[in-house]
Amino acid sequence: MRTAIVLMLAGLIGLGISPASHAADAAKIALVIGNAKYPDNEFVLNDVANDAQDVAEELKRDGFVVDRQSNLTGDAMRQVLDRFYARIDRGAVALIFFDGFGIQSNRQTYLLPVDAQIWTEPDVSRDGFSLDAILAEMNTRGAAIKIALIDASRRNPFERRFRRYSAGLAPAIAPSNTLVLYSAALGAVTAGGRTDHGLFVAELLREMRAPNIGAEQALASTRNGVVAATRQEQVPWLSSSLTTEFSFAGPVARPPDSNGAGQTPTKPEPQKPACEVLQAEAGPSADELARDPVIADLGRKIAANGNDMVSRYKRGQVYAIKRAYTLAMQDFDAVIRRAPRDAEALNNRCWTRAATGDLQGGLADCNLALQINPGLSDAFDSRGLVNLKLGRTADAIKDYTDAIQRNPRSSSSLFGRGVATRKGGGDGTTDIEQAKSMNPNIAKEFAGYGVTECVP
Fold this sequence. Notes:
This is Tetratricopeptide repeat protein. The protein has 456 residues and is α/β, with parallel strands linked by helices. Helices cover 45% and strands 10% of the residues. It has helices at 46-61, 74-86, 121-127, 131-140, 159-162, 199-208, 215-229, 286-291, 293-304, 309-321, 325-338, 343-356, 359-372, 377-390, 393-406, 411-423, 429-438, 442-447; strands at 28-34, 65-70, 93-99, 102-105, 108-111, 129-130, 145-151, 178-182, 237-240. It has a six-stranded mixed beta sheet, sandwiched between helices. A three-stranded antiparallel beta sheet has the order 4-5-6. Helix 15 packs antiparallel against helix 16 (411-423). The longest helix is centred in the first third of the chain and has 16 residues, at 46-61.
């Protein structure tokens, strides 16, 4: 549940690129995948095929070397991704566009091939392709700028087999200098698929063609266009850690220097100390929560049907993500009163209690969640936080290790284990640095729980 909606601002020192660098002359490669024909779906996603073609053509006009693929099986998708990775040169701009079905599991988003066979939670990681892993591989291969455009926030036939609701997509844990745009908010889904073209791609193409604006602004304008066109019913999710100047439609026009001299390269910010005490951010105000379109939509559903536990559960998650813990607890309490053995709801309440300091209550919730579902990695992660705050470092290390074995790319579990190791007298630096490389804001996130990596 430890989902962080972050705007990452890490630099590119590791790649030798200053924040003022230009990407106009860099190699630009793109992989465009449109999976429209899923045998398990009741109809062909007509908009997917058309939108993927339109995006591929636009990227070619923008100077990308494009590989467009459609209706890929798992084996074919793996081969196409390997070919894409092999084409990435150091310093390149690498972009992936995926249109089809996506699903979240263990706080990761998975892109699904057309032959996915998903009946249980473990099938997701077996047959799906982790977006986090794709972005990490793009970074490892040397891409200076990573862009992921994901139109996969659809209700799909797979989740109906083992979940009582559609969970939408999870936030991407992306390396620095990355742009990620989803067609809908985290945890939200759209009902599209029967039209010839999708609204999200129509807005995206219009903004990509706009001259003299950067890529980040183009994607922000895409989000705003979708929000306006749907009257806030669909709110795309954007995450950016972009520090290098880049535009889809060519170089961004820059005003002349006031003293007539050339632009002075921006010096990178000095690196922060390895161990820094961070202040927790304040929670949102009542006005901020009232303006949130996802909360407003879920509130309307709950008002119309007080027994709508799915909407109440989702709203609790959104409240917790926004650190409105008291409101989150109210929703999770209501769900658990109705379904006392809902392991996921118990885990979410455990984590919320851990964040607020109700450690014994959190421990009881996590223990019960793991009794009901012994393989629930999120519950191990949440119980790790409880034990860490209780000072039980050995128990915390064991819980975090169990979570990592089930989800190796959990930045929260890696950071938590590193902190627990450090507080227990060990080093922990490797885990902490790995977690920070995956999620530059993970230390700030833990500061919000009252946990710091520093040991007195």
